[in-house]
Amino acid sequence: MKFIHAADIHLGSPFQGLRKISNDVREKVIASTGEAYNKLVQDAIDNSVDFVCIVGDLFDNPEPDLETLNIAISGMDKLNEAGIPVYLSYGNHDYLNFKIPSNIFPKNVKIFGNQVETKTQTLQDGMTVAITGFSYAKRAEVNARIDEYPVKNQDVDFQIGMLHGSMDGINSTEAHYAPFTQSQLISKNYDYWALGHIHKRQEINSKPIITYSGNTQGRHVNESGVKGVNLVTIDSKEKATVNFLETDVIEWNSIEVKAVAGMDLDKLIAAILREIGDATQSKFQLINIILRDSNILDSVVLDDISSGLALMQIQKQVDPNEILFHRITMKANENIQMFSELDREFWEKSENLVFNSKTVQETLGRLIELDFIAEEYSDEEEVALVKDRVELMLKQRNVLGDE
Amino acid sequence: MKINRIEIYGFGKWNNITFDLKQGLQVFYGLNEAGKSTLRQFIYSVLFGFATGKGGNKYLRYIPKKGKKSAAYGGILEIEYQKHLYAVERTKGKNGGTVSIKNLDTGITMPPEFLSEILGPVDQKTYERLLGFNQSDLDDFNDLSNRDDLRRHILRMGAVGSDEWIKLEQSLKKEANEMYTVSSRTRQLDRKIKEYEQAQKKLQEDKDRFPDYQSIQELQKKSEQHLKEVRDQINILGNQLAETTSLLNNWDNYAEIRQIREALKDVPTQYLKLDLNELEILLNQIKATRSEIKKLKHELSELKLTNEKQDDAEKLVQLQGRLPEVKLNYGQVEDLNKRIQRLLDQSRMIEKQYNQDLSGVHPMTEKEFNEFKELALKEKRVNADINQIKNQMLETAPSRRSKASNPSANMVLGLAAILSIIDFLLPLNIYIKVVILAIIIVAGYVTVKAPKTTSAPAASLSDLLEENEANLDKIKKDIFSIGQQTGFGSFSREDWSVLQNDLQNYQHQLKEVDELKQKLNKTTTQIENFWQFSQQVVVMPQTRSKEAIAPLTNQIAKLVQAANLQRENVQKSEILNKNLQDQQVLLKKLESDPKLLIMSGVDEDSDQWIEEVRTKQNLYLRLTALENSLSATLTQKLEQYKDSAMLRESQSSQESKLAELKQTENQILDERADQIGKLSGLKNSVDILNEQQQLSELQTELKELIANWLTLQLGAKWVDQTLSIATKGRLPIIMEEANRYFNQITNGRYSKIEFDKDDMINVTDKHGETFEIAELSKGTMEQLYISIRFAFMKSFSDTVQLPIIIDDAFVAFDDIRIKQIFDLLKSIADQNQVIYFTAKKEVYNLTDDRDIVDLNTK
Ligand SMILES: [Mn+2]
Q: Coiled coil located at which positions (chain A) (predicted)?
């Protein structure tokens, strides 16, 4: 038995974290999720799979636009022509609603309802497979729907679980997405768990395989690296093997460069380009430059970075059809002295009082009403980055006394 | 640490100069440009290193100008540190210069790290901020108009470089507020937020403009169904119309078929199947033969034939053949007559010479003539002998004899010569002539020789004479007899030889004339014969002469020509007759061909008959073609219609129905195109995904702006918090000293400073009355600030043992206050060296001469 496990295709999704990109790049970006989807369709056909599982978030939006719907439909049509059934469950992004009518898809597409249900298919060799899953009916699913999944039916040869959700503890306050635990899944005795929702590809368990295939196309800086789908083969001894198939057309990546004292802009650019290397990329790269120890740099260089000049200069050095440097993330090194030794304890004491999400959110005031701002600064990691930025800003203003 | 001595090798304007310093308060007095700042920078530079050439610090390097005695860069600070004296020397070198430290007590050179130990945990900036005090610090403080700000400032003085930090904090806040404040509506960030919200709203609106997928689908399905129905009808009607049109197109043929059938109704079938071409060929042959016969007959009639006989023609030809001969004969006759005449003339000439008729005289025979010649010769010889004898007898001398004999011999020889010439003219036998000549020559020779041998004596001479004379007579007699016999006697003997010759010629001419006359006769006879033959053949001319021959020739030629023509005509008529016979046979055969039986006969009307049949046949062919072109079913269908008008009517009604349907189709298509157009127009003008992406980019921009704003805000917060915490942390340590200083510079007016929990500052005066800081005068606040500031400096004296450096502060103080400050500084300087740079004469006046260095004089 051979099938493709895909999730979080997020058709129609914009890319986050880019600014003022060229029309060319924007076109690539807009087309990317659709192209990734088409690749998955082609992969299914090329590999003559028995079926395809799409575990939630086929669409980025519960009200997809026409264009996006058309892309989805034509992909399904292709699979239909190839005689490949598609098991489709909707996730938190594309929960069941009348803006995604179920009758738009050809008959090979089997859509799960909000109730957990099991669909069976007889394979060409006569073996049978049961596929269990459900679709979200709203933006969140606080219930542990895993409880509704039946244990493996002994009458079928294989059983596969499709579940869009997070493995947060059931009692976690964050458990808005059909929470489950690893042992709950294992207890169902399935042959394979096709998970969705987490965009980072990861295998949670190997026997049976419980895995997130990750999303099919990275859409922001935190969805970096190669993205794709799982081509799963399960033999008669119920041994599953997973082959990863790349589907993404644009890759988010980051490179790390360590600043060195006395570095000027040219040297910094040279260091960045060294890190990039001159290997041509098969995919368009969106690169985040992480600049470590940036607080060691002279304020002049920091100025160039914060003004955007540095990014512009680096971009000039590469083929704009291959690479877009979308930002320089500056990180400060705590061990580099920034303040008078005499006052160190006071700076450190106050640091804790200032750089915490509560103070940050208070400071933001009504700006927090912007959902994306609220989301961004609920993240402690981002808060830590803010501290680095502040340090660098102070350094840039040349008040910290090295000269 | 205290600085005892400053020794400068070269630094800015200072060259090879030494300053000795007091361990307590040391004042450097100097007007502007006197070198105060240079000196202060020298102290910093020796302790912390020369300023680097980078950035804004360039002007702090003070590298001595070259050329001017070229002093070495740097110098020495002699210091006291932990009760030892050290010389800290800094000279030109890498990384801020080369430092060497020497223990002046022991002379031991210390390692460079020793300097770090002396300086403790401060860098130059910290040092400047911590132990430096200048007018601008005071000015900044005084600039705070708000009492609360003054209070806050005091509450934040407890960190290194508080004043600068406070300034920074303020500028960060200001900058942040320029971007955005809680209450702002039009600042950068506000505008961006507005832009973002508008884009968001537009995206939603644009999304709403699109009908949902399902309704589009349903609409499309409905119009598709309707379109299909209409198109089916169009198809059906189209087929019907095509059939009607086809019937109409075939109507003319159909009508023609009917017409032709009517026209051929009475025509026998055999006529339609007749091979007209074959028949036509036959008819043409007959016609041709007939006209040939006619022509032959006409040609025969044209031939003129006479009944002349064949043999006449032959005789004519014969006669014509003899014409050349007769012409020749006439020429011969003339010629012969001429020759005869000429011969007769010659013979008459000869007769005339002799003046005598010679017809009776005959030439001598050859024998006679030879006899004569011999006798004549003998006579001459005898005469000559007689003459010789007579001479001998007269002269008797031998010589004479010989002389005499010679002429006689010569005579003989000359005669012989003449004779021989004549002889050869005579028609004699050549042998005879030769003999004669030989004889003559021998006789001559004998005559010449004889006298020599016969020289007889005189006595015999007379005898001899007589003998000879007798002989001579006999010869003369013989000759005379010959003359008698031959008739020559009537001619002189001297002419006999010539006569003999003439006679011979004469005889010959006569004979030739005879012969010519015979020939003439014969020729004349021939001419006569010709004329007689001619007489039998042609009409004769009147004269039969040579002149008549030419016209006769012409006449004969004409007759011959006529005869020839006659012969040709005969031959021609024979051929014509033969051809005529053949053609008549052929005609008979042709006319009996059975193909002709279908016709009434071959005559002038035959062609017309053929043409009529041909027309029928063509009609029949057309009919067959038409019938083939019309299918049976079509014909069947056509038969249902009376006429084409009926068909046409049906066609036009179908056409109008079809047009209606097509219009409906177009309407549906238009509607659909309209829908699609609207949708695609919408799709073209509205790119949801693009808008969405741009919104996201706007979001990124906004995030970045907010991050920048937040950075400023949090930076200010951090500074504020740190200063506040530091101040609070350090206050308990400095309070005792601060109180003392405050008391001292207010001349004991205030005794105590207190900070309460709510960050309020209270001071108590000597009467025990307490004031909130806001209630104090500005001057008192300033004094408070200075007290705390110096207390703060003092508090670091354990960790930072460096001189306090004051750069022309207190300029606005009056004399009393300056005095108070100086008293305070002096008391501080007891423990911590104070170096005071000033350009103020007041300060100069206040100070002990011992404690002051006047830079103006250096
Ligand atoms: Mn997702």
A: none
- Mean pLDDT, residues B106-115: 90
Q: Are residue B127 and residue B230 in the same domain, yes or no?
A: no
Are the beta carbons of B145 and B136 closer than 8 angstroms? no
Beta strands B804-807; B132-134: pairing state: parallel
Final residue before a domain boundary, out of B678, B699, B726:
B678
Sheet holding A109-111, edge to edge: A109-111, A86-89, A51-55, A2-6, A228-234, A240-246
The CA distance from A330 to A258, in Å, is: 10
- For the record, the structure tokens of B57 come out as 């610090």
Select from A14, A343, A355 the Cβ nearest to the Cβ of B160: A343
**pLDDT tens-digit series, residues B364-401:** 888 888 888 888 888 888 888 888 888 888 876 554 44
Beta partners for residue A288, in sequence order: A254, A327
Q: pLDDT (tens digit, 9 = 90+) per residue, B450-509?
A: 555 445 556 678 888 888 888 889 988 988 888 888 888 888 888 888 888 888 888 888
Structurally, chain B folds into a number of domains equal to: 3
User: Cβ of A275: how many Cβ atoms within 10 Å?
Assistant: 14
Distance A255 CA to ligand 1 centre (A): 25
- Check B710 against A67: CB less than 8 A apart: no
User: Would you state the CATH architecture of domain A2-246?
Assistant: 4-Layer Sandwich (3.60)
Domain enclosing residue B414, as ranges? 366-507
Tokens standing for A176?
């808005």
Tell me if B537 is assigned to some domain: no
Cross-chain residue pair A376–B213, CB shorter than 8 Å: no
In a domain, B559, yes or no: no
Instruction: State ipTM.
Output: 0.92
Do the chains contact at A372 and B699, CB–CB below 8 Å?
yes
CATH number at residue B85: 3.40.50.300
Domain range summary for chain A, segments of one domain joined by + = 2-246, 252-400
**Dihedral (CA of B588, B591, B593, B597) sign:** negative
Q: List, for residues A240-296, the tens digit of each pLDDT value.
A: 899 999 999 999 999 999 999 888 999 999 999 998 887 677 899 999 999 998 888
Q: What is the DSSP letter of A59?
A: B
- pTM score: 0.62
Phi, psi at residue B51, to the nearest 5°?
A: -65, 145
* B626 and B493 part of one domain: no
CA of B699 to the centre of ligand 1 (A): 20
